[in-house]
Design a protein that fits this description.
Layout (H helix, E strand, L loop, with lengths): L9 H14 L5 E7 L5 H14 L4 E4 L10 H12 L4 H11 L5 E4 L2 H7 L1 H11 L3 E3 L9 H10 L2 E3 L1 E2 L5 H10 L4 E4 L15 H9 L6 E4 L5 H9 L4 E4 L1 H9 L2 H14 L2
Length: 269
């Protein structure tokens, strides 16, 4: 793995990416998700480059895991396929290294691979690769002290998730401690392509933004350029698209995927 030559802390690079997207005339930053190692490691490197060429402002890079409790069938199947193809953490990080100088990469990993590697070693490898932040969907705030400290010591953003079901007091605590950005879950349930949200997204985003010191991004269920545009209109400062792009990774070549990203990026102008 070739380490990316990135000098600014991850938190700074993430903030710059959101600011740059706004300065370039986009209502929200575009953050497509991809599964590292799917359909294979080399193809996923090509897909990451296509994301950037298509206009991605940041990339959320998933580490394949056998029991991805927050993910729906498309991403779950991609994780299983990547593992069956022999994808390792080291190989997955080469995907991040391939584009880390061009855009901020935020790693999405469940807690078990982090603990198996060792929290300090895991975070050191992220920094060496040029990764800017970490999302751990199954790490409760009450148990996050070790990961929080390791990320803070290295300038890595530890991005929290909030949902429509998050109680107000808990949301205030999570938002106040957030670094990088706040991942706002638009729906209850797992990731996947949907035709609509569960409730009042503008009200949810307004609740989150009330105490936020970092950008607020919206994800889960956004699968069309029109839905991305609606998310920005509702007040999202970042739009995260997952299952639609993972499905494309299994069906299309890198050129077509880049065009799909461009369609979403255009919709956010």
């Amino acid at each position: 793995m070739t380490a990316a030559h990135v000098t600014a802390p991850g938190t700074e690079r993430i903030a710059e990416a959101f600011a740059r997207a706004h300065a370039d005339g986009r209502r929200a930053a575009l953050m497509p998700y991809m599964m590292a190692g799917y359909p294979d490691v080399e193809r996923s490197r090509e897909i990451a480059a296509a994301y950037v060429d298509g206009g991605a402002d940041l990339i959320e890079l998933g580490i394949p895991f056998s029991d991805p409790l927050a993910d729906g069938p498309v991403i779950h199947a991609a994780a299983v396929a990547a593992l069956e193809a022999g994808a390792t953490l080291h190989e997955c990080l080469t995907v991040a290294a391939a584009v880390a100088e061009r855009v901020p990469v935020i790693l999405m990993s469940y807690i078990n691979p982090i603990l198996a590697r060792g929290v300090e070693r895991f975070c050191d490898e992220l920094v060496a690769t040029g990764v800017c932040g970490l999302i751990v969907p199954d790490l409760p705030r009450e148990e996050s002290g070790l990961v929080t400290a390791a990320c803070a010591a290295r300038g890595l953003a530890l991005v929290p998730l909030v949902a429509p079901t998050t109680p107000p007091d808990r949301m205030t605590e999570i938002v106040a401690a957030a670094t990088g950005f706040i991942y706002t879950v638009a729906v209850t349930g797992t990731t996947g392509e949907r035709t609509g949200s569960d409730g009042d997204v503008p009200a949810l985003l307004a609740r989150v933004r009330g105490d936020a010191r970092v950008p607020v991004a919206l994800g889960f269920g956004i699968s069309t350029p029109e839905q991305a545009s609606a998310a920005a209109a509702a007040g999202a400062e970042g739009v995260i698209v997952g299952s639609r792009f993972v499905r494309a990774a299994g069906e299309a070549d890198a050129v077509a995927i880049g065009e799909l990203v461009r369609a979403f990026a255009t919709a956010l102008r």
